[in-house]
Amino acid sequence: MGSTSLSPSISLSPSLSPHSSKFPNPSPNLFLRSHSSFTPLTLRSNQTRYRFKKLPSSNAPNFLVAASAKAEPLKVIISGAPASGKGTQCELITQKYGLVHIAAGDLLRAEVAAASENGKLAKEYMEKGELVPDEIVVMMVKERLLQPDSQQRGWLLDGYPRSSSQAAALEDYGIRPDVFILLDVSEDILVERVVGRRLDPLTGKIYHLKYSPPENDEIASRLTQRFDDTEEKVKLRLRTHHQNVDAVLSVYKDITVKVNGNEAKEHVFAQIDAALTHVGEQRKVNSGSVAA
Ligand code: AP5
Q1: What are the boundaries of the region Disordered (predicted)?
Q2: What is the pLDDT of residues 48-87, one digit of tens each?
């Protein structure tokens, strides 16, 4: 059956009917169907309810819409200055919400480690605390966002967008989060967090010598430090952050949740958890009102 894709979750399907053998288990969340005399109707199929209604557009008077009550997976952007705790919070968020964590910095460091052409170029910028050019970052992030796991489980985008052009690229692709979390941390705390940060190359876990020390000597002996985690380099990274943050915030101001990131990580997570729970509840109400 041919269908015209509108977005990852919407498709046009001119021949589908509620009596079609495909109806009980449709995969897209929205169908349009040609019909001239159909009354708005709610149907139940397994766990999912479908409501049919006429499209208001005079261009498509004979089409009907069936919208699934099943909510789309959650899409979250987390933002904040260098070492504000984005990676630390992402670990806690993914544990609870099962979202796919996509960190622009991690994707770039993987390229650097692989010594690819993009990685070699990226490292020059990362060492100066500057933004890696869009030609490298934008496609890399977009491709990861469109992978099946991100589409099915939802995503948690960390450290992207960092400039107005990166935000515009996401908007152009029709990729918009449900919520934009901004971690707000004072500058003296940021420097202390950067200098004390250590990484476990085996598990990928983030530690801090003072705030989150390794569990035992074996782990402590294998911890590494990032090449850009010095006091000198974090000041350059902070300058880059300050130059760009307002432009990014202006794109997402209607969905921004500002979180006090100065507190202990469990308290920071409690604020984020409350915000995500609220977004989830609102989405349930919205999808319920479509299906009711
Ligand atoms: P990236 O890797 O994204 O670095 P960043 O933004 O500087 O952020 P960090 O990873 O340093 O910190 P974080 O906020 O994740 O903090 P963490 O949880 O680790 O980017 C690196 C470079 O790549 C950039 O400079 C740029 O060159 C390039 N790049 C990346 N994205 C790009 C893009 N979109 N476009 C172009 N270029 C791009 O925490 C830090 C430490 O604090 C840890 O030790 C942790 O244990 C501790 N800690 C965390 N939370 C708390 C807490 N609440 N209390 C006490 N300690 C805490």
Answers
A1: 1-23
A2: 333 333 334 434 333 333 344 467 899 999 999 999 999 9
CA 117 to ligand 1 center in whole angstroms: 23
- C-alpha 87 to ligand 1 mean position (Å): 6
Tell me if residue 213 falls in helix, strand or coil. Answer: coil
Q: Residue 182's Cα: distance from chain center in Å?
A: 13
- Which of 118, 129, 82 is CA-nearest to residue 103? 82
Residue 166's pLDDT is 98
**Residue 122, exposed/middle/buried by CB under 10 A (0-12, 13-18, 19+)?**
buried
What phi and psi values does residue 227 have, to the nearest 5 degrees?
A: -65, -20
In three-state secondary structure terms, 33 is strand
126 lines ligand 1 (CB under 6 A): yes
The alpha carbon of 88 and the centre of ligand 1 are apart by a number of angstroms equal to 9
pLDDT (0 to 100) of residue 24: 30
Q: Can you list the domains of the chain with their CATH numbers?
A: 4-70 (no CATH), 75-285 (3.40.50.300)
* Model confidence pLDDT, tens digit, residues 251-287: 999 999 999 999 999 999 999 999 999 999 998 888 7
Answer yes or no: are the C-beta atoms of 160 and 75 closer than 8 Å.
Answer: no
Quote the CA–CA distance of 219 and 97 in Å, as a whole number.
27
Q: Give the distance from CA 118 to its chain's centroid.
A: 23
- Would you please indicate which residues are annotated as catalytic (active-site) residues? 86, 162, 197, 226, 237
Q: Measured in whole angstroms, how far is the alpha carbon of residue 115 from the centre of its chain?
A: 27
